[in-house]
Design a protein that fits this description.
The chain is of the alpha+beta class. The chain has 4 helices and 5 strands, in the order E-H-H-E-E-E-H-E-H. It has a 5-stranded mixed β-sheet, with helices on both faces. A hairpin with a 4-residue loop joins strand 3 and strand 4. The chain is globular.
Length: 132
């Protein structure tokens, strides 16, 4: 039973939605069409599987030359704090290379996690909040 991290180009929407639900991350999982668009529009999907069971996901947008935005990093709550998120983040860096800056927006509950895995807080970002 070895954890397998791999890049995937196709996905099973029901499997992905079940993982989002099991992770506790706040995403519009009841809106299947929106979630399907989110996943299909991501150009780097890295999964963590144990014996084929989907346990984690790094959903990213990247130009593969300068920046990668990690849209979602999620792990099934049952398997959290076992290094799966850290392994997924390492796989993002391996897939994009050391010349590519990794960016993400953290949930308030995860603000303490990211410095532990090598991320630094930045204060030079701006956003316009989504309306729904």
């Amino acid at each position: 039973m070895t954890l397998q991290i791999q890049q995937e180009t196709h996905f099973n929407l029901d499997e992905m939605l079940a993982l989002y639900q099991a992770s506790g991350i706040n995403r519009p999982i009841d809106d299947r069409e929106r979630m399907a668009i989110m996943l299909a529009s991501s150009n780097l999907l890295l999964t963590a599987r144990l014996d084929g069971k989907l346990l984690g996901l790094a959903r990213c947008l990247t130009d593969r030359a300068y920046v990668v935005y990690i849209c979602d990093l999620l792990v099934d709550k049952t398997y959290q704090q076992q290094g799966i998120g850290k392994a997924l983040l390492a796989a993002v860096q391996q897939a994009t290379g050391p010349q590519v800056q990794q960016l993400l927006r953290s949930a308030p509950s995860a603000m303490q996690y990211y410095p532990k895995v090598g991320f630094s807080a930045v204060d030079n970002a701006f956003d316009i909040q989504r309306q729904y």
